[in-house]
Protein backbone atom coordinates (compact mmCIF):
# COMPACT_ATOMS: atom_id res chain seq x y z
CA UNK A 1 0.00 0.00 0.00
CA UNK A 2 2.88 2.41 0.89
CA UNK A 3 4.51 1.83 -2.50
CA UNK A 4 1.21 2.53 -4.28
CA UNK A 5 0.77 5.82 -2.40
CA UNK A 6 4.30 6.98 -3.26
CA UNK A 7 3.77 6.00 -6.90
CA UNK A 8 0.51 7.93 -6.97
CA UNK A 9 2.26 11.01 -5.50
CA UNK A 10 4.91 10.87 -8.24
CA UNK A 11 2.23 10.60 -10.93
CA UNK A 12 0.39 13.59 -9.44
CA UNK A 13 3.62 15.64 -9.28
CA UNK A 14 4.44 14.87 -12.91
CA UNK A 15 0.90 15.76 -13.97
CA UNK A 16 1.31 19.08 -12.13
CA UNK A 17 4.44 19.81 -14.17
CA UNK A 18 6.83 19.15 -11.26
CA UNK A 19 9.29 16.38 -12.05
CA UNK A 20 9.61 14.05 -9.09
CA UNK A 21 13.39 14.03 -9.28
CA UNK A 22 13.48 17.83 -8.82
CA UNK A 23 11.05 17.62 -5.92
CA UNK A 24 13.24 15.02 -4.25
CA UNK A 25 16.42 17.01 -4.90
CA UNK A 26 14.98 20.13 -3.28
CA UNK A 27 14.24 18.22 -0.09
CA UNK A 28 17.59 16.46 0.26
CA UNK A 29 19.92 17.96 2.84
CA UNK A 30 23.47 17.42 4.00
CA UNK A 31 24.96 18.31 7.37
CA UNK A 32 28.12 20.38 7.56
CA UNK A 33 30.13 21.72 10.49
CA UNK A 34 30.89 25.43 10.32
CA UNK A 35 33.98 27.32 11.47
CA UNK A 36 32.89 27.58 15.12
CA UNK A 37 31.70 23.98 15.39
CA UNK A 38 27.96 24.40 14.73
CA UNK A 39 26.30 21.64 12.71
CA UNK A 40 24.01 22.98 10.01
CA UNK A 41 21.66 21.19 7.60
CA UNK A 42 21.83 22.73 4.13
CA UNK A 43 20.33 21.71 0.78
CA UNK A 44 22.38 19.05 -0.98
CA UNK A 45 22.31 21.25 -4.08
CA UNK A 46 22.71 24.95 -3.38
CA UNK A 47 21.52 27.43 -6.01
CA UNK A 48 21.64 30.79 -4.20
CA UNK A 49 23.98 31.92 -1.43
CA UNK A 50 24.14 35.15 0.53
CA UNK A 51 27.83 35.74 1.27
CA UNK A 52 27.45 38.32 4.04
CA UNK A 53 30.71 37.97 5.93
CA UNK A 54 33.19 40.59 4.74
CA UNK A 55 35.45 38.30 2.67
CA UNK A 56 32.59 36.00 1.67
CA UNK A 57 31.99 37.09 -1.95
CA UNK A 58 35.73 36.96 -2.70
CA UNK A 59 35.88 33.37 -1.49
CA UNK A 60 32.78 32.35 -3.43
CA UNK A 61 34.36 33.90 -6.54
CA UNK A 62 37.71 32.21 -5.84
CA UNK A 63 35.97 28.83 -5.84
CA UNK A 64 34.08 29.48 -9.08
CA UNK A 65 30.68 30.01 -7.46
CA UNK A 66 29.87 33.46 -8.85
CA UNK A 67 26.71 32.14 -10.55
CA UNK A 68 25.34 31.20 -7.10
CA UNK A 69 26.14 34.54 -5.47
CA UNK A 70 22.80 36.26 -4.80
CA UNK A 71 23.56 38.76 -1.99
CA UNK A 72 26.77 40.59 -1.05
CA UNK A 73 27.81 43.26 1.49
CA UNK A 74 27.29 46.81 0.19
CA UNK A 75 30.99 47.77 0.24
CA UNK A 76 31.87 45.40 -2.60
CA UNK A 77 30.25 47.77 -5.05
CA UNK A 78 32.78 50.43 -4.07
CA UNK A 79 35.84 48.19 -4.29
CA UNK A 80 37.53 49.09 -7.57
CA UNK A 81 39.47 45.83 -8.00
CA UNK A 82 36.45 43.70 -7.09
CA UNK A 83 34.25 45.49 -9.62
CA UNK A 84 36.95 45.13 -12.27
CA UNK A 85 37.69 41.44 -11.74
CA UNK A 86 34.48 39.83 -10.44
CA UNK A 87 31.94 39.64 -13.28
CA UNK A 88 28.67 41.42 -12.51
CA UNK A 89 29.41 42.12 -8.83
CA UNK A 90 27.91 45.62 -9.18
CA UNK A 91 24.59 44.10 -10.23
CA UNK A 92 24.25 41.65 -7.35
CA UNK A 93 21.86 42.90 -4.64
CA UNK A 94 23.40 43.78 -1.28
CA UNK A 95 22.35 43.42 2.33
CA UNK A 96 23.70 44.26 5.77
CA UNK A 97 26.54 42.22 7.25
CA UNK A 98 25.26 43.07 10.75
CA UNK A 99 21.53 42.43 10.52
CA UNK A 100 20.37 40.97 7.19
CA UNK A 101 16.75 41.46 6.15
CA UNK A 102 14.72 38.26 6.41
CA UNK A 103 12.42 39.56 3.69
CA UNK A 104 15.39 40.24 1.43
CA UNK A 105 16.81 36.75 1.99
CA UNK A 106 13.47 35.13 1.22
CA UNK A 107 12.91 37.31 -1.85
CA UNK A 108 16.25 36.17 -3.25
CA UNK A 109 15.41 32.49 -2.55
CA UNK A 110 18.57 32.15 -0.48
CA UNK A 111 19.49 28.53 0.26
CA UNK A 112 22.39 29.30 2.63
CA UNK A 113 23.75 32.41 4.34
CA UNK A 114 27.54 32.51 4.81
CA UNK A 115 27.95 34.73 7.84
CA UNK A 116 29.93 35.92 10.85
CA UNK A 117 29.54 34.57 14.39
CA UNK A 118 26.91 37.17 15.37
CA UNK A 119 24.43 35.34 17.66
CA UNK A 120 21.30 37.50 17.34
CA UNK A 121 21.14 37.69 13.51
CA UNK A 122 21.97 33.98 13.32
CA UNK A 123 19.06 33.19 15.64
CA UNK A 124 16.71 35.41 13.65
CA UNK A 125 17.63 33.82 10.31
CA UNK A 126 17.53 30.31 11.72
CA UNK A 127 14.07 30.94 13.20
CA UNK A 128 12.96 31.97 9.70
CA UNK A 129 14.12 28.61 8.36
CA UNK A 130 17.22 29.95 6.58
CA UNK A 131 20.40 27.89 7.12
CA UNK A 132 23.33 29.98 8.40
CA UNK A 133 26.91 28.75 8.10
CA UNK A 134 29.51 30.67 10.10
CA UNK A 135 32.66 31.25 8.06
CA UNK A 136 34.19 34.14 10.02
CA UNK A 137 35.09 34.29 13.71
CA UNK A 138 35.22 37.81 15.15
CA UNK A 139 36.08 37.57 18.86
CA UNK A 140 39.33 36.64 20.65
CA UNK A 141 37.51 33.59 22.04
CA UNK A 142 36.32 32.21 18.70
CA UNK A 143 39.35 33.28 16.66
CA UNK A 144 42.41 30.97 16.39
CA UNK A 145 44.49 30.60 19.55
CA UNK A 146 47.76 29.55 17.89
CA UNK A 147 49.58 29.63 14.56
CA UNK A 148 48.70 26.00 13.92
CA UNK A 149 45.05 26.71 14.63
CA UNK A 150 45.15 29.78 12.39
CA UNK A 151 46.57 27.71 9.53
CA UNK A 152 43.97 25.00 10.06
CA UNK A 153 41.12 27.54 10.23
CA UNK A 154 42.30 29.35 7.10
CA UNK A 155 42.09 26.11 5.14
CA UNK A 156 38.98 24.88 6.93
CA UNK A 157 37.17 28.11 6.03
CA UNK A 158 37.90 27.60 2.32
CA UNK A 159 36.84 23.96 2.60
CA UNK A 160 33.51 24.98 4.16
CA UNK A 161 32.81 27.27 1.21
CA UNK A 162 33.60 24.34 -1.06
CA UNK A 163 31.24 22.06 0.88
CA UNK A 164 28.43 24.59 0.50
CA UNK A 165 28.99 25.41 -3.17
CA UNK A 166 29.31 21.88 -4.54
CA UNK A 167 31.77 19.35 -6.03
CA UNK A 168 33.61 21.70 -8.42
CA UNK A 169 34.15 24.27 -5.67
CA UNK A 170 35.21 21.53 -3.28
CA UNK A 171 37.92 20.43 -5.73
CA UNK A 172 39.13 24.01 -6.12
CA UNK A 173 39.18 24.46 -2.33
CA UNK A 174 41.48 21.44 -2.11
CA UNK A 175 43.73 23.02 -4.75
CA UNK A 176 43.83 26.30 -2.80
CA UNK A 177 44.73 24.53 0.44
CA UNK A 178 47.63 22.78 -1.28
CA UNK A 179 48.79 26.17 -2.58
CA UNK A 180 48.46 27.59 0.95
CA UNK A 181 50.80 24.96 2.39
CA UNK A 182 53.29 25.37 -0.47
CA UNK A 183 53.55 29.11 0.17
CA UNK A 184 53.23 29.24 3.95
CA UNK A 185 55.39 26.36 5.17
CA UNK A 186 58.69 27.53 3.61
CA UNK A 187 58.24 30.92 5.28
CA UNK A 188 57.51 29.35 8.66
CA UNK A 189 60.54 27.09 8.30
CA UNK A 190 62.66 30.26 8.35
CA UNK A 191 60.80 32.57 10.71
CA UNK A 192 60.10 29.98 13.40
CA UNK A 193 63.80 29.86 14.27
CA UNK A 194 64.28 33.64 14.59
CA UNK A 195 64.87 34.66 18.25
CA UNK A 196 62.14 36.84 19.76
CA UNK A 197 64.55 39.68 20.52
CA UNK A 198 65.48 39.90 16.83
CA UNK A 199 61.90 40.24 15.56
CA UNK A 200 60.70 43.71 14.53
CA UNK A 201 57.95 45.38 16.53
CA UNK A 202 55.10 46.15 14.13
CA UNK A 203 52.21 48.58 14.43
CA UNK A 204 49.38 47.94 11.98
CA UNK A 205 47.04 50.76 10.99
CA UNK A 206 43.70 49.16 10.34
CA UNK A 207 42.22 52.50 9.25
CA UNK A 208 40.48 54.65 8.34
CA UNK A 209 42.23 56.60 11.12
CA UNK A 210 45.79 56.03 12.32
CA UNK A 211 44.85 54.90 15.83
CA UNK A 212 42.52 52.01 14.96
CA UNK A 213 44.49 48.78 14.81
CA UNK A 214 43.98 45.01 15.05
CA UNK A 215 44.09 43.10 18.32
CA UNK A 216 44.54 39.67 19.82
CA UNK A 217 44.12 36.53 17.67
CA UNK A 218 43.16 38.47 14.54
CA UNK A 219 44.32 37.48 11.07
CA UNK A 220 46.77 40.37 11.19
CA UNK A 221 48.27 39.24 14.50
CA UNK A 222 48.90 35.73 13.18
CA UNK A 223 50.18 36.82 9.78
CA UNK A 224 52.64 39.28 11.35
CA UNK A 225 53.79 36.56 13.75
CA UNK A 226 54.18 33.98 10.98
CA UNK A 227 56.18 36.51 8.95
CA UNK A 228 58.59 36.85 11.86
CA UNK A 229 57.33 40.03 13.46
CA UNK A 230 55.65 41.01 16.70
CA UNK A 231 52.37 42.92 16.43
CA UNK A 232 52.56 45.40 19.30
CA UNK A 233 48.77 45.40 19.79
CA UNK A 234 48.43 41.61 19.91
CA UNK A 235 47.33 41.54 23.56
CA UNK A 236 44.43 43.96 23.10
CA UNK A 237 41.13 42.10 23.39
CA UNK A 238 39.05 43.83 20.71
CA UNK A 239 39.20 42.86 17.05
CA UNK A 240 39.64 46.55 16.10
CA UNK A 241 40.84 48.37 19.21
CA UNK A 242 41.28 52.11 19.33
CA UNK A 243 44.57 53.18 20.91
CA UNK A 244 46.15 56.50 21.90
CA UNK A 245 49.17 58.13 20.31
CA UNK A 246 50.82 57.88 23.75
CA UNK A 247 50.38 54.11 23.63
CA UNK A 248 51.96 53.89 20.17
CA UNK A 249 54.85 56.08 21.31
CA UNK A 250 55.43 53.76 24.28
CA UNK A 251 55.44 50.74 21.94
CA UNK A 252 57.89 52.58 19.65
CA UNK A 253 57.41 50.17 16.70
CA UNK A 254 60.24 49.40 14.29
CA UNK A 255 57.81 49.12 11.36
CA UNK A 256 54.38 50.61 10.65
CA UNK A 257 52.10 49.03 8.04
CA UNK A 258 49.25 51.18 6.76
CA UNK A 259 46.67 48.39 6.49
CA UNK A 260 43.56 49.60 4.71
CA UNK A 261 44.88 53.12 4.14
CA UNK A 262 46.37 53.89 0.75
CA UNK A 263 48.97 56.44 1.85
CA UNK A 264 51.68 56.85 4.48
CA UNK A 265 50.96 60.59 4.79
CA UNK A 266 48.42 59.99 7.56
CA UNK A 267 51.41 59.27 9.79
CA UNK A 268 54.42 60.74 8.02
CA UNK A 269 52.84 64.21 7.82
CA UNK A 270 51.61 64.23 11.42
CA UNK A 271 54.20 65.70 13.85
CA UNK A 272 52.79 63.65 16.74
CA UNK A 273 54.42 60.56 15.17
CA UNK A 274 57.82 62.08 14.37
CA UNK A 275 59.77 60.58 17.29
CA UNK A 276 58.63 56.99 16.71
CA UNK A 277 61.43 54.75 15.43
CA UNK A 278 59.58 53.54 12.31
CA UNK A 279 58.89 57.15 11.27
CA UNK A 280 62.42 58.36 11.95
CA UNK A 281 63.87 55.49 9.91
CA UNK A 282 61.34 55.76 7.08
CA UNK A 283 59.89 52.30 7.70
CA UNK A 284 56.23 53.18 7.20
CA UNK A 285 54.72 51.14 4.39
CA UNK A 286 51.46 51.01 2.49
CA UNK A 287 49.69 47.66 2.45
CA UNK A 288 48.62 46.03 -0.83
CA UNK A 289 44.92 45.90 -1.62
CA UNK A 290 43.16 43.76 -4.21
CA UNK A 291 39.76 42.14 -4.72
CA UNK A 292 39.39 42.17 -0.93
CA UNK A 293 41.58 43.51 1.88
CA UNK A 294 44.63 41.29 2.21
CA UNK A 295 44.30 41.12 6.02
CA UNK A 296 40.79 39.68 5.67
CA UNK A 297 40.61 37.40 2.65
CA UNK A 298 42.17 34.52 0.73
CA UNK A 299 44.81 37.01 -0.39
CA UNK A 300 46.18 36.75 3.15
CA UNK A 301 48.67 34.26 1.71
CA UNK A 302 50.07 37.12 -0.37
CA UNK A 303 50.13 39.38 2.69
CA UNK A 304 52.24 36.82 4.55
CA UNK A 305 54.75 36.80 1.69
CA UNK A 306 54.73 40.60 1.52
CA UNK A 307 55.35 40.99 5.26
CA UNK A 308 58.07 38.33 5.38
CA UNK A 309 59.94 40.09 2.57
CA UNK A 310 59.40 43.48 4.26
CA UNK A 311 60.73 42.26 7.62
CA UNK A 312 63.62 40.19 6.26
CA UNK A 313 64.51 41.22 2.70
CA UNK A 314 67.73 39.18 2.73
CA UNK A 315 66.08 36.01 3.98
CA UNK A 316 63.25 36.27 1.44
CA UNK A 317 65.01 37.75 -1.57
CA UNK A 318 63.54 34.88 -3.63
CA UNK A 319 59.99 36.22 -3.25
CA UNK A 320 58.94 38.26 -6.29
CA UNK A 321 55.68 39.91 -5.25
CA UNK A 322 54.64 40.90 -8.79
CA UNK A 323 55.05 37.29 -9.87
CA UNK A 324 53.21 36.00 -6.78
CA UNK A 325 50.25 38.35 -7.29
CA UNK A 326 49.94 37.46 -10.97
CA UNK A 327 50.11 33.74 -10.19
CA UNK A 328 47.40 34.01 -7.54
CA UNK A 329 45.02 36.01 -9.73
CA UNK A 330 45.53 33.76 -12.72
CA UNK A 331 45.16 30.52 -10.77
CA UNK A 332 42.25 31.40 -8.50
CA UNK A 333 40.48 34.38 -10.05
CA UNK A 334 41.04 33.29 -13.65
CA UNK A 335 42.25 36.82 -14.40
CA UNK A 336 45.55 37.61 -16.15
CA UNK A 337 47.02 40.74 -14.58
CA UNK A 338 49.55 42.88 -16.40
CA UNK A 339 52.72 43.78 -14.54
CA UNK A 340 51.33 47.29 -14.12
CA UNK A 341 48.09 46.01 -12.62
CA UNK A 342 49.97 43.78 -10.19
CA UNK A 343 52.18 46.71 -9.23
CA UNK A 344 49.13 48.88 -8.57
CA UNK A 345 47.65 46.20 -6.29
CA UNK A 346 50.99 45.93 -4.50
CA UNK A 347 51.00 49.69 -3.90
CA UNK A 348 47.34 49.97 -2.80
CA UNK A 349 46.33 51.81 -5.96
CA UNK A 350 43.06 51.55 -7.86
CA UNK A 351 42.99 50.23 -11.45
CA UNK A 352 44.29 52.74 -13.99
Automatic annotation (TrEMBL):
It comes from the Archaea. Transmembrane segments: none annotated. InterPro entries: ABC_Transporter_SBP, ABC_transptr_periplasmic_BD. Residues 48-315 form the Fe/B12 periplasmic-binding domain. SUPFAM superfamilies: Helical backbone' metal receptor (SSF53807). PANTHER family: MOLYBDATE-BINDING PROTEIN MOLA (PTHR30535:SF34), VITAMIN B12-BINDING PROTEIN (PTHR30535). This is Iron ABC transporter substrate-binding protein. It comes from Methanospirillum lacunae.
Amino acid sequence: MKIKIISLMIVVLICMGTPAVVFAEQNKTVTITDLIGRTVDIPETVHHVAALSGPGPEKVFLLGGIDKLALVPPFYKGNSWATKIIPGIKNIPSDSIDDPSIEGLLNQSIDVVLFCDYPKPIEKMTDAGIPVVVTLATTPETEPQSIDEFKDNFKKDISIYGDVLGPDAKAKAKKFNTYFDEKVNPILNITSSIPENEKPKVYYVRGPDALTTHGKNTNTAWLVSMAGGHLVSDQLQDMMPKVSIEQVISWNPDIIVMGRVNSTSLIMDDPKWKDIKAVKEGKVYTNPDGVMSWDYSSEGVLLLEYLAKMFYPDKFSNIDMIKEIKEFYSTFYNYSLTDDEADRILNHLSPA
